Amino acid sequence: MSAAAWAVLLAVLVTGWVLLDGAVQGAGATLLQERGHEGGNRRREPAERRVVLGAVGPLLLPGEVWLLAALGVLVGVFPHATADLLDAGSPVAITLIGSWVLRDAGMWLRSRRPGKIWRDVWDVVLVVASIALAGSWGALLGVAWGNGLAALGLGIVAVVVTRLHGDAVVAWRLRRTGPLPVIVTSVMIAAPVVGTAVAAWPRLVEGGISPEAMASLGFVALAVLPVILALQVLAWWLIARPLGRRDTLFF
């Protein structure tokens, strides 16, 4: 595989992650409240929160497979570009990793013990971490542009768009809307990734390893990609079904 092919694969993997995990981030950010029928915000009851998390829960682990695969490609094939990105945006990267860990902890731990205080504390952690994860991810894209203003703008855009995407996926699973809003928000959430890939393309391709090493790693990619694609199909098949009671049991 050439450097250009690896760069395209990296963009595809990152896009797959933001489509899946963006819905989880958006649902987590709005977990405690939703927009009421009169237009104002209303606080969600505990049972409603479980429904929201159950609606996006099937996307969590498949999405993280895409992210880990993308990190593998970025670090293994483009080490110089990785070093430049971390050098310019290490605080943003640290925030992203920390908020990612806390968000996952909130998802898995909120229902592991009985008690309202335990659940409410983890719900607050989940909301804050989801917003921080979306914002730091958008800011990291801006760092790849090499522009501080782009980092700020894309961070704000990511927070807003993930909320819209999460709401659209939850509404679709509850059969309040059709799939069209999910398609629209999917395009919105993928656009910054595609734009960043185009903007950073020259620096990314020039920061690759030797052609021989790329070719060797290509065999690994050919073995792993079918698994990732199967998980993607499984994830969207799971959320295409109407939300059932068993979907909310774990969360």
UniProtKB/TrEMBL annotation:
GO MF terms, alphabetically ordered: oxidoreductase activity
Membrane association type: Multi-pass membrane protein
Similarity comment: family membership: Belongs to the cytochrome ubiquinol oxidase subunit 2 family.
EC numbers on record: 1.10.3.-
First-level EC class: oxidoreductase
Protein name: Cytochrome d ubiquinol oxidase subunit II
TM ranges: 6-32, 52-78, 90-109, 121-143, 149-166, 178-201, 213-239
Xref: Pfam families: Cyt_bd_oxida_II
The organism's place on the tree of life at top rank: Bacteria
UniProtKB keywords: Cell membrane, Membrane, Oxidoreductase, Transmembrane, Transmembrane helix
